[in-house]
Amino acid sequence: MEDIAFCFNNIDRKPDFSTVDAPDHGRIETRNIWTTTDMNEYLDFPYVGQVFMVERITYFTKSGKERKVIAYGLTSKTPDMATAKDVLKDNRGHWSIENSCHYIIDWNYDEDRSRITKGYGPENITRLRRFAVGLLKSKGVQNVSQKMRQLSMTPRMVLDYLKMTRNSRCVSKV
Question: Can you tell me the distance from the alpha carbon of 9 to that of 56, in angstroms, rounded to the nearest whole number?
Answer without folding.
Answer: 16
